[in-house]
Write a structure and sequence with these properties.
- The complex is a heterodimer of chains A (324) and B (319).
- In chain A, 36% of the residues lie in helices and 20% in strands.
- Chain A has 324 residues and is of the alpha/beta class.
- In chain A, the strands form 3 sheets. Chain A has a 7-stranded mixed sheet with strand order 3-2-4-5-7-6-12, sandwiched between helices. A 5-stranded mixed sheet of chain A has the order 9-11-10-13-14, sandwiched between helices. A two-stranded antiparallel sheet of chain A has the order 1-8.
- The radius of gyration of chain A is 19 Å and the shape is globular.
- Helix content of chain B is 45%, strand content 11%.
- The longest helix of chain B is centred in the N-terminal third of the chain and has 26 residues, at 5-30.
- Chain B has one domain (5-174, 182-306): 3-Layer(aba) Sandwich (Rossmann fold).
- In chain B, helix 1 runs antiparallel to helix 2, helix 4 packs across helix 12 (281-304) and helix 5 (119-133) packs parallel to helix 6 (151-162).
- In chain B, the strands form 2 sheets. A 6-stranded parallel sheet of chain B has the order 2-1-3-4-8-7, sandwiched between helices.
- Classes of the chains: A alpha/beta (324), B alpha/beta (319).
């Protein structure tokens, strides 16, 4: 079985889609031949497809997305890269008011086949302007779809779907995932949106986790297995659309749920997931819903501070044990 | 007019402080003592120093991801800058900010933002506050060539222009934004030409000549203090090292790097001071030794300082 990194899986998806469809092009800061993307996802693509289709831009996030929107509504399929998730804030008008609303506002006349790739998350000590997890911002805007791929396999399959999809998609990556390796088949495949993945089966408690937290949850599950606690880890894979069925089914089975996300707690991804479970599976719960998230603070720089605010395996285990 | 001998010597010392401080940070990074990433100011010292030599303690500056030099030039404490870079509790921001987010509000250093271009409207806002409070302070806003393509550049400078705010917009044009050469992202040669679009003076200076920077900034400060509005000063300079610690900067032609290394602002200024009779070679050496000792002390202080306690992460969110 072939194992490749998350970074390489993304690049394969981009490359294959660019070969398949000449309307696909990439746009972003330092994604071209001189740098290959801050996290090297697009490395080599400018050399292969040329600078026209792998476009380096000025540092102008709002215009990057605006230009991508303009191209998308006139027949192209742009994949824009925003170098760091926090910097989507600079492009928020184009994302939330333009890309998200154009189709609806104009009575369904237009489609906006746009993908915005961006890395969220902490863990590399680059402080408050480069480390936040903002997936919930995009979930809150009708018209946007939100992908959270946690493995190389999911990353490739979901990115291909995102590119072929006719809606604006915010494709959330995580800095710590790029070097992670995993199985990715040689042959063509895609993963549909709205289909969660049970990353580990279990019977005592459900952990719903996203992005890098999936891996921390799996590590916690492994540790707890040795103590005889059976943890099921469910990865929604896309937050919009959300696979409510798989999540609630797992909760109905185990009767207990811990939600683990790296964004902060208040009005976060975990709040939406908890509300869903409360609405649709409350009668099956044997214990209160637990949430393990980053504390409600900007991400601090110094390692002891950053390590404290972002959930770790210990906090996940503690939360599980509180309801077992 | 030339600055006084005392000021010239101060400028020389500050440039050396920045140079050796940055070299030290580079070295500590290599020893795994610096978390995260670093963006060094080596090669660009004349810009921060030439500008800040015109500022009073109560004047303001805004800074960038490449900001250590700005803070040092404004009079920041080397110990507390180093401690912050190492993530220590005694650092300027108690370890919350790190290399890209140093601030010292007590000397008007309003902070380094790592969001490229974000400091530009903030500087205009500090200028507005000065105007509303009726003082004669000024603001110096540092940003890169790359930042000048952000919407904030247009919006911030235009506002400062129409309201005649006391701001120096100082573009540190080091020819690159990460691997992106200026010519890839703008068709003009001089960022300063954009000043015309806002109806304010735009000046191009040799950013590796501290006296040229000083002179341009001096005029801009005078104009600002008189309430005549902002100036855009573009300083042509070059970073000696990669964009960040692990960037080998292979996108820069070797000849270009060599040519710029020859224009290193520090030996240039040193020779000039000796030529002018402001300093002897020996005195220059003496200053350099003092600076090196001061930096050693800063490193010692930072290394011996404790890390913040984890729970301190929860403090300072709200006033
Ligand atoms: C808004 C924003 N976009 C992108 C980045 C990533 N980034 C950090 S520094 C940098 C280049 C900045 O270039 P310039 O303004 O010329 O400053 P220099 O690094 O050359 O001093 C980029 C693109 C960022 N931090 N903020
Ligand atoms: Mg630059």
């Amino acid at each position: 079985m072939r194992e490749i990194s998350y970074r390489d899986a993304l690049r394969e998806a981009l490359r294959e889609e660019m070969i398949r469809d000449p309307t696909v092009f990439l746009i972003g800061e330092d994604i071209g031949r001189y740098w290959g993307g801050a996290f090297k996802v697009t490395k080599g693509l400018a050399e292969e497809f040329g600078d026209e289709r792998v476009r380096d831009t000025p540092i102008s996030e709002n215009a990057i997305i605006g230009v991508a929107v303009g191209a998308a509504i006139t027949g192209m399929r742009p994949v824009a890269e925003i170098m760091f998730g926090d910097l989507t804030a600079l492009a928020m008008d184009q994302i939330a008011n333009q890309a998200a609303k154009i189709r609806y506002m104009f009575g369904g006349q237009a489609k906006v086949p746009l993908v915005i790739r961006t890395p969220f998350g902490g863990g590399v000590n680059i402080a408050a302007h480069h480390s936040q997890s903002l997936e919930a911002w995009f979930m809150h805007v009708p018209g946007l779809q939100v992908v959270v791929a946690s493995t190389p396999y999911d990353a490739k399959g979901l990115l291909k779907t995102a590119i072929r999809n006719d809606n604006p998609v915010v494709f959330c990556e995580h800095k710590l995932l790029y070097p992670l390796t995993g199985h990715v088949p040689e042959e063509e495949y895609t993963i549909p949106f709205g289909v969660a993945d049970v990353k580990r089966e279990g019977t005592d408690v459900t952990v719903v986790a996203t992005l890098y937290m999936v891996h921390k949850a799996l590590a916690a599950a492994e540790t707890l297995a040795k103590e005889g606690i059976s943890v099921e880890v469910v990865d929604p894979r896309t937050l919009v659309p959300l696979d409510k069925e798989t999540i609630t089914e797992s909760v109905r089975k185990t009767g207990r749920v811990v939600i683990v996300t790296e964004d902060c707690k208040t009005a976060g991804v975990s709040a939406e997931l908890a509300a869903l479970i409360a609405e649709e599976a409350l009668d099956y719960l044997d214990a209160p819903i637990k949430r393990v998230t980053t504390f409600d603070v900007p991400i601090p720089f110094s390692p002891p501070l950053e390590n404290f605010v972002i959930p770790d395996e210990k906090r996940i285990i503690k939360a599980i044990k509180e309801i077992i | 007019m030339l600055p006084s001998s005392d000021k010239l010597v101060w400028m020389f010392r500050k440039m050396l402080e920045i140079r050796h401080f940055e070299e030290k940070v580079y070295e500590l990074y290599g020893q795994n003592l610096v978390p995260g990433t670093i963006h060094l100011y080596v090669g660009e010292e004349a810009v921060a120093v030439g500008v800040c030599a015109n500022l009073r303690k109560d004047d303001y500056i805004t800074s960038t991801h490449r900001g250590h030099g700005h803070c040092i030039a404004k009079g920041g404490d080397l110990k507390r800058i180093m401690a912050e870079i190492l993530g220590k509790r005694t650092g300027y921001c108690k370890g919350k900010g790190g290399s890209m987010h140093i601030a010292d509000f007590s000397i008007g250093m309003l902070g380094a933002t790592a969001v490229v271009g974000a400091g530009i409207p903030i500087a205009a806002g500090a200028g507005l506050s000065i105007k509303l409070r009726g003082t004669d302070q000024v603001v110096a806003c540092f940003f890169g060539d790359g930042a000048s393509n952000q919407g904030t550049f247009h919006e911030g400078i235009n506002m400062a222009a129409i309201w005649k705010l006391p701001v120096l917009f100082v573009c540190e044009n080091n020819l690159y934004a990460m691997g992106t050469r200026q010519s890839m992202v703008m068709l003009i040669e001089n960022v300063a030409d954009r000043a015309a679009a806002y109806g304010i003076p735009g000046v191009v200076v040799d950013g590796n000549d501290v006296l040229a920077v000083y002179e341009a900034a001096k005029q801009a400060v005078e104009r600002a203090r008189k309430g005549e509005g902002p100036t855009l000063i573009e300083c042509k300079t070059y970073r000696h090292k990669g964009h960040s610690r692990f960037d080998p900067a292979t996108y820069r032609p070797k000849e270009e790097v060599e040519e710029w290394l020859k224009k290193d602002p520090i030996p240039r200024f040193r020779n000039k001071l000796v030529e002018m009779g402001v300093l002897t070679e020996n005195e220059a050496k003496g200053i350099e030794e003092e600076v090196l000792a001061e930096i050693e002390e800063a490193v010692k202080f930072a290394l011996e300082s404790p890390y913040p306690k984890p729970e301190e992460a929860l403090e300072d969110v709200y006033a």
